[in-house]
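User: Predict structure, ligand copper (II) ion.
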Amino acid sequence: MDEFGKSLKVSYQLNLTTGVTPLSHAIYHLHMIIFWICIGIGIVVFSFLFYAIIYHRKSKGAKAAQFHTHFRLEMAWSIIPFIILALMAIPATKVLIQIRNTDKPDLTIKITGFQWKWKYEYLDSGIQFFSNTTTPFAQIHGSQPKDQDYLLTVDHPLVIPIHKKVRFLVTSNDVIHSWWVPDFGTKQDAIPGFIIEAWTRVNKPGTYHGRCAELCGMNHAYMPIVVEALTEKDFAAWVIQQKTGVAPPATSPAVISSEKNKALPVENKSETTSLASIMQKGQQIFNTTCAVCHQLTGEGLPPTFPALKGSPIATGPVEQHIHRVAFGKPGTAMQAFKDQLTDEEIAAVITYERNAWGNNKGDIVMPADVAAIKAKG
Amino acid sequence: MTQNHKSMLALISRWLFTTNHKDIGTLYLILSGIMFFIGGIMAMMIRIQLYRPGITFIDPNFYNQLVTLHGLIMIFGAIMPAFVGLANWMIPLMIGAPDMALPRLNNWSFWILPFAFLILLSTLFLPGAAPNFGWTMYTPLSTTYGPPSTDFLIAAIHLLGISSIIGAINIIATIINLRTPSMTYMKMPLFVWSWFITAFLLIIAMPVLAGVVTMMLFDRHFGTSFFNAAGGGDPVLYQHLFWFFGHPEVYIMILPGFGIISEIIPTFSRKKIFGYTFMVLAIASIAFLSFIVWAHHMFTTGMALSAQIIFMYTTMLIAVPTGVKVFNWVATLFRGAITFETPMLFAIAFVILFSIGGFSGLMLAVVPADYQYQDTYFVVAHFHYVLVTGALFSIMAAIYYWLPKWTGHYYNETLGQLHFWITVVAVNVTFFPMHFLGLAGMPRRIADYPLQYTDFNQIISIGAFVLGLAQIIFLYNIIRTIFYGKKATSRVWEGAQGLEWSIASPAPYHTFQT
Ligand SMILES: [Cu+2]
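Assistant: Predicted complex:
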């Protein structure tokens, strides 16, 4: 058909997924029952309709009958659908009660929606990280061919064990989002200021995809969800690895611990002080974290997403700039990045913003400067 | 020169100050037509962007503005004014009244609308963005995070609300007071019945919308926190209030359509409507149920289990009176002497395709399944079947049906049939694959999508363009009918019954005067 989608297995998928959890299986069953009920009613009604259209045409010499009411018939077709629906309501109610039963979880994960990323916190083990889309700008804007997994990848997927009841506590930091993984049959709106429970129990190891399902602003399409379901053994290993920081593979999330806020190791010191290398690192962070709003050109999309190019913040006092990035601007899409990025990363991105797009301040912001302002609050 | 000037002024004041129900009906229908094409152009732009993945045509921020305005314009600008226009034209003719009961209010309720839509559409040209949070205006996206133009939207909604309420009061007053003496309530045509009940829905629902957008305005500017959790409010409260308006609104957009279809099917079947009493009762029960099902739009917000169960049951219950309507239309067709003029083709397509929208509605009522459908293209498919092949098809059927009465000319039947067949094919190519996309996991209101959804989106976009272009035939046929066309008889259609067919075609400027 064209350059996309040719070799995709799931192209032209017609029906709901059966999924990999008891809930998604139960939902699929209900979906098929109600579907066949509709088909059945449709066949009966449309048969009469088409029979009339074909055989009761004036052009075929049909003469109109005189009947125009039949009390018993009308009572019948009021009551019979009612009975069918009442029968349908019973299994639906049973499954619904199951969906809402979040008792006795083996593991609890808090999910927070942000414009436009997800944050996962493992309340039992203290692991926490953000999950961002990794689809490059160039692919979105068409200057680079799209990969087969376009808009399906994140930097840090949610990792859960199979055969365990995982409880999700879903909330939001800004606007309403909705955390949805079709294979789990789990969809829960993330509402700022409220925490709502959902749960899943995955049967099969694998990688599962979902998306934000509630319009949440400009980049609503760019909030993919990826969940890795691991065997219990692999999951335990993953937890240990996250907590100790031993040999984290390239794709695994940054460990959030005291280590996070340390300055760079000594051997890299000379490198970090050179403007060019900091700029390069800063640009990388800017492009993945900041450019969705402020744009690659730094020109933003005013007035909602202000320009950084020549802006009072990016060319004014450096302390204010650090404060804005660290603590955000409440009531806007500008979030507090103090817990999302390390001091070193914040320093690099601010250095970049103050020296890119003709801002030429010449400042080099050090992680210690960031730490100092964070400490002051 | 001055002569021209004077006749120009006369023309303007003729339409600006008119209190004649036929003039006002025409004005409503013209406004509806303009809005239909504006909203349609927005839909075409949306479909160009969705033709392929990536940001290929418009950026996501503008995409969200188009999605929002397309919804608002089609609901408040195209569908509702069309039904009010039909009510203005036809209710006095059908009940033998000389005019609407409150002619000056009638003038006002129309002339508010062009200004409301100027305000709404001006947001596209304001600095910053037009409203970009969907026609549902969920908080806090529309309050704390809403663009400055949101205040213009709120002002426009207030005007629309005032217009609707005045219009509804007028319709109720007309039906209660101006029926010809022999026309008892249970002898009223079903179109009149359907509007009688719809008008009550408007009077109950619109003030709730006005209230909720005012609360939004206060949250935005006056420091209240109705919908802001940080100040002790609740974003979900907004959704409860909005849908308490929004669900009756859905029926406001379909009940007059039921009325129209109940007029057209008997005419072209040459047979009385089957089960008149049940038809009236069904409309009344749908109207009543519409006030106790609103939370089915919010099943995934985390409301209490008991609330989910109750709203699931009430929602499923709506299928019963809706089913009665469909069964009775089929029974009316059965053993009739059917002909297939354009209004009848649209009416039959309505019965079939609206039923498909009803079926997906029944599926959406099943809460566990709704967890998978909610906020996906399955929902988009559902409400376009109900609103396009439902409400819009009934309006098109009505226009073809009554156009000879309004203009005194028959429309061109060949063009009408051509318009119907292209439309009915294109509408299914456009909206049916949306069911598949939704079931395969594509959320609604996204400007960009993974590659697996490309194929269906391309089919949908092509269908949408054919659907859009086919409406030019419709427009041409209407304009042509105003000036040319075979002279219409007063009965117009062989099987037509009712008072409106007893007067000349075109209907004289003043009718049923005593
Ligand atoms: Cu989101």
